From TrEMBL:
Protein name (database record): CCR4-NOT complex subunit CAF16
Residues in the signal sequence: none
Pfam families to which the protein is assigned, alphabetical: ABC_tran (PF00005)
Superkingdom as given in the UniProt entry: Eukaryota
Domain ABC transporter: 10-236
PANTHER family membership: SKFA PEPTIDE EXPORT ATP-BINDING PROTEIN SKFE
Database matches in PROSITE patterns: ABC_TRANSPORTER_2
Entry GO MF terms: ATP binding; ATP hydrolysis activity
InterPro entries noted in UniProt: AAA+_ATPase, ABC_transporter-like_ATP-bd, P-loop_NTPase
Keyword Nucleus: no
CDD domains named among the record's database cross-references: ABC_ATPase
SUPFAM superfamilies: P-loop containing nucleoside triphosphate hydrolases (SSF52540)
Species: Tremella mesenterica (Jelly fungus)
Length: 287
């Protein structure tokens, strides 16, 4: 990893990505630059490309013709150390659902080398090291994943919806830990989520990923125009982040509906057809 503190922690320039050549791009002309110590929330509708962007940054998808780097290193060919990606697909891996004790599981990935941080995370995440992985709930399994991923000294953290299974208390304690890590160690966090309660004090920036395109990065809290009392009052509202996300998502839905309409497509119910009735009568699972 370079020692040049001026090199961005995350640097994406004009990234366009399609899963196959015949599909519309999942990401189109995305540009995003974050410096060390930044904590950025990625906000966007389902299918906006949030998970795809995070997986690309984690070096899990090959890209061509775009700059996508962490600390100046190409993310696919030369991903630097200190990058941790935590996504939802982890919990569906059969290995993590096997009959293995949590303490053994953590030791198998080097927990004994990070005892102090591991033990602190075990307390924050309220994990019982005597749990058996195949006997615990999805939320408890998620806590083990977070402990496993965060106990090392990471420099860039990529989080994709991994707090969705956590209860409110554990999630709040985890967010406090992440903010502290970012401030003390100058670590950078890119966090995609649909849950905004309790997050107003977390981000330094917010990124609106709109139908695969990243709109300009905004600092958080938003700048308040001088003398605008109503805006100032809204910004002090702990739910202001939620309301901003809600406004953006409504805007995204209207934009997507307009595009779909222009292409002769739409979501929702369609007119009843004879074929549908025939299919239902043939496969009536209620009887």
């Amino acid at each position: 990893m370079t020692d040049d503190l001026l090199v961005p922690a995350i640097d994406v320039e004009r990234l366009t990505y399609s899963f196959t050549h015949d599909l519309e791009p999942a990401l189109e002309d995305v540009t995003l630059t974050l410096h060390r110590g930044s904590r950025c929330l990625v906000i966007g509708a389902n299918g906006a490309g949030k998970s795809t962007l995070l997986r690309i940054l984690a070096g899990k998808r090959l890209i061509k013709g775009a700059k996508c780097s962490i600390f100046g290193h190409d993310v696919f060919n030369n991903l630097p150390g200190g990058v941790v990606y935590l996504g939802t697909e982890w919990s569906s891996n059969p290995v993590v659902r096997g009959d293995i004790v949590v303490s053994d599981f953590l030791d198998s990935v080097g927990g004994y080398r990070h005892k102090e941080r591991r033990d602190r995370l075990l307390r924050i995440l309220d994990v019982d090291v005597d749990w058996h992985m195949h006997q615990i709930s999805d939320g408890e399994r998620r806590r083990v994943q977070l402990c496993m991923g965060l106990m090392g000294h990471w420099d860039v953290l990529l989080l994709d919806e991994v707090t969705v299974d956590l209860d409110v208390l554990v999630r709040a304690d985890l967010i406090e830990f992440l903010v502290e890590e970012s401030k003390i160690r100058n670590a950078t966090i890119l966090y995609a989520t649909h849950i905004f309660d309790g997050l107003s004090s977390f981000p330094t920036h917010i990124c609106h990923l709109q139908l695969g395109t990243a709109l300009p990065l905004l600092p958080w809290p938003l700048a308040i125009p001088s003398g605008d009392a109503s805006t100032a009052e809204t910004d002090r509202d702990p739910d202001s982040l939620f309301h901003l996300a809600l406004e953006w998502l409504r805007e995204d839905r209207n934009l997507r509906r307009g595009r779909d309409s222009a292409r002769g497509k739409h979501r929702g119910p369609k007119a009843e057809t004879t074929n549908a009735r025939t299919f239902f009568e043939k496969y009536d699972y209620a009887h």
